[in-house]
Amino acid sequence: xxxxxxxxxxxxxxxxxxxxxxxxxxxxxxxxxxxxxxxxxxxxxxxxxxxxxxxxxxxxxxxxxxxxxxxxxxxxxxxxxxxxxxxxxxxxxxxxxxxxxxxxxxxxxxxxxxxxxxxxxxxxxxxxxxxxxxxxxxxxxxxxxxxxxxxxxxxxxxxxxxxxxxxxxxxxxxxxxxxxxxxxxxxxxxxxxxxxxxxxxxxxxxxxxxxxxxxxxxxxxxxxxxxxxxxxxxxxxxxxxxxxxxxxxxxxxxxxxxxxxxxxxxxxxxxxxxxxxxxxxxxxxxxxxxxxxxxxxxxxxxxxxxxxxxxxxxxxxxxxxxxxxxxxxxxxxxxxxxxxxxxxxxxxxxxxxxxxxxxxxxxxxxxxxxxxxxxxxxxxxxxxxxxxxxxxxxxxxxxxxxxxxxxxxxxxxxxxxxxxxxxxxxxxxxxxxxxxxxxxxxxxxxxxxxxxxxxxxxxxxxxxxxxxxxxxxxxxxxxxxxxxxxxxxxxxxxxxxxxxxxxxxxxxxxxxxxxxxxxxxxxxxxxxxxxxxxxxxxxxxxxxxxxxxxxxxxxxxxxxxxxxxxxxxxxxxxx
Length: 575
Description:
Blueprint: H1 10-14, H2 20-47, H3 52-69, E1 77-78, H4 84-94, H5 96-115, H6 127-144, H7 146-150, H8 161-170, H9 177-196, H10 198-203, H11 212-226, H12 234-238, H13 255-258, H14 262-287, H15 293-306, E2 316-317, H16 319-327, H17 334-354, H18 359-373, H19 376-380, H20 387-402, H21 405-427, E3 429-432, H22 437-440, E4 457-466, H23 472-475, E5 490-501, H24 503-518, E6 522-526, H25 530-538, H26 541-545, E7 550-551, H27 554-574
Parallel strand pairs: 4-5, 5-6, 6-7
Antiparallel strand pairs: 1-2, 3-4
Helix pairs in contact: 2-3, 2-16, 2-17, 2-18, 3-15, 3-17, 4-5, 5-14, 5-15, 6-18, 6-20, 6-21, 9-11, 9-18, 14-15, 14-16, 20-21
């Protein structure tokens, strides 16, 4: 019977003993992160090739559902930078309608992953792959903002990296200096804002709570409006922003097109799972909590099932906003719910003001986010790691930039598996054991002949894991085609340091036993641990070589070898 994960959102446990003081802290942190999330939601939607309201809808509905139904105490959900490149590629290739379908199916897949407890398995994805594709996405996000950062007159930006570079080169003469200076100034404000407000924060403490991104958004918008700069704004490119949430609509399902959405759906689901669970781990460290990975996947899945009906884009956990929420003192998922309501309130009240936001300012915000996403520190440390780690990280990074995330993750996982198999196989060793002199002298029959003209008994110790990647070491013990080398009468395999064995290892042992028997030899095994012993029994290997040849320790195995040699001598004498 399949043991499905139970559906129990974190908020159910978090509100036990919930106090007024907890609510005040959740209210404060929810308002703070809601204000920060607003421009990011708009920026991520535009960078993804969608209208600004798509990001706001996703932040409101997705953020609400992830907090209400997820498995983390302070996780903040919504549109994320990691999805920008994927969503843009899907929109360009398949259209917005099919993005909605991909998101919906990805949500179903995420719920299934949570129910079947896949959340515990996500941690097995190597960190090199995560750093590689995250840094690759950061590069793509940064490059995609060059058009708005420089005010280039490019009607539609291509989806792939090299086509974007070509488009920038062909249109570089259309650079708008107002946009370029506004973008540069906004980036400087974001970076220098903590230092600029330090003197004022001593007098007015509330100023210290204003993030640099919000300051750049407000000051950049005011500068463009007061100075009458000729720059593209949200209003001039997209028109107005709705004052509230739209009515849900059922997307049109075209099964012919849906057949092609398997890869995008899998990519959204996989990336959403990785991002959300990584974010939840960060939240655990900041909030001294332990998240439920399977419940988190189910919460993420439900959010991605619902959001498409309102025209939103994929949602997941967001590390920056979650960290802000935790540091602001959030005590429960209520803060995430408040953050979603704050965005909705601002959307309803201040939507007319958003049309004045310059695209160059949003580009500055995304470039800053992309810079923080790129793990420069890890790239600087690459020379300290082995070739395996470097190959996986750099391979995933370049494949993400040159091709797409799906290819990068697939190839990265294949490389990781290959290197892991090689590493484990290199740790598996088979060493020849010397027979102690006291054992060799016991009884009338020696275990070796005096002239060493032929080997009577060979003993080997197996260390590590005998699996499909290491069976060549067993095959090298005896070559049945080498008739010049005498075959041992008895070969002992000592297994007390053999961790595990798979069916390929069992097959290799069966072949070794049959080859020895053809040349008059016998295979004896001893000191097998529980897993190898169990599989050897279930596979019929013990029955083939005889239970009398499966012994508990090396000394008993040597005594068995002496008995076999004695029997062999009797047969030879009798003949």
